[in-house]
């Protein structure tokens, strides 16, 4: 198929009927697709004990009412996705942020965590969040549903104890616990780190590493469990960024659909594939994408000739060596002209 024809067909790539779109639903164009994918995600794998919630960005710089700007992300402008993942990077749910006027009742952070974790509550699991989501009302809500919360904390949150005004020396930790078992702590490493947990105390444990003075490095158990649980989101985003299928487009729903369908879904499929393989048979995300392409195109690998020798190509601007060669015919013509 020619490229121009493929791009022409791609312009009409839709996932819902525009004539049936509700007036107050900004993400109607991709809602049906995401709901089907999420249903498949949750039917394939049962989540473990630790689950992390964070946001990801789908790059988009076009005109869009709910386009977001997050300076700390690799793609600063785009559509924000809220995801819940487990430690191995498997994504169980995705939610597209459609703007503030789509939020009702509770605050955005609390509402997002409760919506994404709703199918996994009342099972003794632990939700890991960063300081954007972690709060005392959220911890109480999760405890009422037999679910724990671990996360970093902003010191200016409401209804927190006065421990955050205490100055600490490197390595010191201070904390408070309320009647519900919620621990709020402040630890000074290279800087002050505020944290909250519903299942820990403020005990320090050895990390297994040593500093320059050959002394064991100590950290709070809250921090160790937070880092281990939060790694799932970062791993999912990292794998999705390799050989990303997202391409330039003026249609935001094309980019969101491509990221969820060919990014997150492929990463989930890779994780399930590698779980059923021995350690020496696991493959990378790039190799897995190549295998998917071969299957979709119904290519037979035995009939594909692959040359081991590297291919060479002539690059524009490469200098060539010019040689001057003597021509007897040209010399004779010049000699005759001079003697006429």
UniProtKB/TrEMBL annotation:
Residues 322-332 have a biased composition (Basic and acidic residues). It comes from the Eukaryota. Pfam families: DDE_Tnp_1_7 (PF13843). Residues 307-340 are annotated as: Disordered. Residues 1-269 form the PiggyBac transposable element-derived protein domain. This is PiggyBac transposable element-derived protein domain-containing protein.
């Amino acid at each position: 198929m020619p490229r121009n024809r493929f791009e022409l067909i791609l312009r009409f790539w839709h996932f819902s009927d525009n004539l049936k779109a509700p007036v107050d639903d900004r993400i109607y164009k991709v809602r049906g697709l995401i709901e089907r994918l999420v249903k498949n995600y949750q039917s394939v794998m049962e989540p473990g004990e630790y689950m992390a919630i964070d946001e990801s960005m789908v790059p988009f710089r076009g005109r869009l009412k709910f386009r977001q700007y997050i300076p700390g992300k690799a793609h600063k402008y785009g559509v924000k996705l809220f995801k819940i993942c487990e430690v191995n990077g498997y994504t169980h749910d995705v939610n597209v942020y459609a703007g503030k006027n789509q939020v009702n009742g509770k605050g955005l952070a609390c509402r997002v965590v409760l919506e994404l974790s709703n199918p996994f509550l009342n099972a003794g699991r632990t939700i890991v969040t960063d300081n954007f989501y972690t709060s005392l009302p959220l911890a109480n809500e999760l405890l009422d549903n037999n679910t724990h919360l671990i996360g970093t904390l902003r010191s200016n949150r409401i209804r927190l104890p006065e421990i955050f005004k205490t100055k600490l020396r490197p390595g010191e930790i201070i904390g408070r616990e309320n009647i519900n078992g919620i621990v709020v702590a402040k630890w000074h490493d290279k800087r002050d780190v505020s944290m909250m947990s519903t299942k820990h105390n403020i005990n320090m444990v050895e990390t297994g590493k040593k500093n320059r003075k050959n002394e064991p490095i100590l950290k709070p158990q809250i921090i160790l469990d937070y880092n281990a649980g939060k790694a799932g989101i970062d791993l999912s985003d990292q794998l999705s960024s390799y050989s990303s299928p997202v391409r330039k487009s003026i249609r935001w729903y094309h980019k969101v659909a491509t990221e969820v369908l060919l990014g997150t879904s492929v990463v989930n499929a890779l994780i399930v594939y590698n779980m059923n393989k021995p350690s020496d048979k696991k493959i990378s995300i790039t190799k897995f994408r190549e295998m998917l392409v071969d299957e979709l195109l119904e290519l037979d690998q035995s009939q594909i000739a692959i040359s081991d020798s590297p291919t060479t190509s002539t690059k524009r601007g490469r200098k060539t060596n010019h040689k001057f060669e003597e021509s007897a015919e040209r010399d004779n013509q010049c000699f005759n002209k001079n003697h006429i």
